[in-house]
Specification:
Number of strands: 14
Radius of gyration: 24 Å
Largest sheet: 6 strands, mixed
Distance between the termini: 44 Å
Helix content: 25-40%
Shape: elongated
Length: about 375
């Protein structure tokens, strides 16, 4: 990669003229503001739990050009808007212009709708798409901007770090290990876009050429539809081969938090039924209080049982916490079952029935 891509740039006046010519500067709001080099495009819906980390990371970008944060709040019912407004002054002090809008109707318009609104109100010559629950690493905007300048017809992605660690392990490995030619050849797999949406970066000119996101709402894969249209037009996907984004598995966290709120808060202790990856992942995702309530893991796999203990190596506690691993017949409830239903040929269900356990009292499924 050219160590000094800026030398290939035309003047700002020439670029701004082209942006206007190609429709990127046609919005009245954007025209009234000074054009930014990069607009960070962020749709928001009930994201207050993650916004602090997300916004702090934007503040810490090492990009020296001009940046704008363009947020569209899609009918949030939490205090997302309040958090965003609280950060406005800090962002502007850092030299990042801020555009925040949204609506408060009873129904959100959907991800495609919110992204389109955020793009429309933005002014940047380049667009950096950011999910409100993810965290960009300090060099993300700079490295993707430099790459996009050199490859103006490319949709630029990057490698990611998954949070929690080990979540969707096969998918994360696929994201990070694709070779450049596989970004095209593996576009037909069930995984979705080979350049994953939370990492997208492109010129406004390219985005407007492909067209806006589908606004069909819930269930519509707006990112995949856009990606296919991009490929139809001869677009070339590209990835910066560095981890530039912490890609959070939000649904997992929501499920864990709801389990802790509704079930684990009522229990003094419990056993996790699965000493494998899913059981250990649940344990690591629990609050410290609930981790201390775990009296054992249980399983049917003799290899796991023979280890006798699971040690939480990532813990900052000393000594590191250890949890016994037992055969399920030796374990006592209540249980959180981390084994997928209909995946054991009925064995799990038979084992549960043999202990005469009642779902909702003696155990809950979390799989």
């Amino acid at each position: 990669m050219d160590p000094n891509p800026a030398k290939r740039l035309r003047t700002a006046e020439e670029e701004e003229a082209e942006v206007r010519e190609n429709g990127g500067g046609e919005q009245p709001e954007a025209e009234r503001r000074k054009t930014a080099d990069v607009s960070i495009i962020m749709p928001v819906h009930n994201a207050s739990s993650w916004l602090e980390e997300c916004l702090q990371a934007i503040m810490h970008q090492d990009f020296t050009g001009s940046m704008e944060l363009s947020v569209f709040d899609d009918a949030s019912t939490d205090d997302s808007r309040k958090v965003l407004e609280a950060w406005r002054e800090r962002m502007e002090d850092r030299g990042i212009s801020v555009v925040i809008s949204g609506h408060g109707s009873s129904q959100p318009g959907g991800v495609g709708f919110a992204k389109n609104k955020a793009v429309t109100q933005s002014s940047g010559r380049y667009l950096c798409f950011q999910d409100a629950d993810d965290i960009m690493l300090p060099q993300r905007v700079r490295l993707q901007y430099e790459t996009s300048i050199l490859h103006p017809n490319s949709l630029i992605g990057c490698r990611v770090q998954r949070l929690p660690e080990g979540s969707t392990e096969r998918y994360a490995r696929w994201i990070n290990s694709l070779a450049q030619d596989q970004l095209l050849t593996q576009a037909y797999t069930s995984h979705g876009p080979t350049v994953v949406m939370p990492t997208w970066f492109c010129s406004r000119k390219l985005f407007m050429k492909v067209g806006l996101f589908d606004e069909g709402g819930k269930g519509v894969p707006e990112d995949l539809l856009f990606f296919y249209q991009f490929l139809r037009q001869g677009g070339s996907p590209l990835r910066v081969d560095q981890r530039l984004l912490v890609y959070r598995e939000t649904i997992w966290k929501l499920r864990v938090d709801f389990l802790q709120e509704r079930v684990l808060s009522q229990w003094e202790s419990f056993t996790i039924w699965n000493a494998g990856k899913q059981g250990r992942k649940l344990y690591r995702s629990l609050s410290l209080i609930n981790q201390k309530k775990v009296k054992a893991f249980c399983d049917v796999d003799e290899k796991k049982i023979q280890k006798r203990f699971y040690t939480h190596e990532e813990s900052k506690e000393r000594p590191k916490p250890t949890v016994p691993v037992l055969h399920y017949k030796e374990a006592t409830g209540p249980f959180i079952i981390c084994v997928k239903l209909d995946m054991t040929g009925g064995v799990l269900e038979e084992n549960l029935n043999s202990l005469q356990l009642k779902e909702g009292t003696d155990y809950y499924h979390f799989n």
